[in-house]
Amino acid sequence: MNVDKILDAKGLACPMPIVKTRKAMNELEKGQILEIHTTDKGAKNDLTAWAKSGGHELLKYDDEEGTVFKFWIQKG
């Protein structure tokens, strides 16, 4: 997967991962992909809902590391 920007939101609590994601998405062009790294356990529900409501597509979610959750969102 070709990632256009990586956002490090580790250590931030809700709602900051969403705030930072929104700001980073605004810097991307339609079709580009943002990779987000966060430690916020609520981020899965928050980012999934945010992406859908904003017309973006959650391409992939990975929590294999157990403490760092990774998301790949394509700008709609």
Topology (elements, then pairings):
Blueprint: E1 5-9, H1 16-26, E2 33-38, H2 43-53, E3 57-62, E4 69-74
Parallel strand pairs: 1-2
Antiparallel strand pairs: 2-4, 3-4
Organism: Paenisporosarcina macmurdoensis
Domain UPF0033: 7-31
InterPro entries: TusA-like, TusA-like_sf
Structure characterization notes:
By secondary structure, this protein is of the alpha+beta class. It has a single domain, classed as Translation Initiation Factor IF3. The chain contains two helices and four strands. The chain has helices spanning 16-26, 43-53, and strands at residues 5-9, 33-38, 57-62, 69-74. The chain has a four-stranded mixed beta sheet with strand order 1-2-4-3, with helices on one face. Strand 3 (57-62) and strand 4 (69-74) form a beta hairpin. The radius of gyration is 11 Å and the shape is globular.
Please supply descriptive tags for the structure shown above.
76 residues; single chain; four-stranded mixed sheet; alpha+beta; Translation Initiation Factor IF3
Backbone structural class: alpha+beta
Shape designation: globular
- Topology as a string of helices (H) and strands (E): EHEHEE
How far apart are the termini? 17 Å
- SS elements, strand count: 4
CATH T-level topology: Translation Initiation Factor IF3
Q: Mind telling me the CATH class? A: Alpha Beta
What would you report as the Rg, rounded to the nearest angstrom? Answer: 11 Å
> How many separate domains?
1
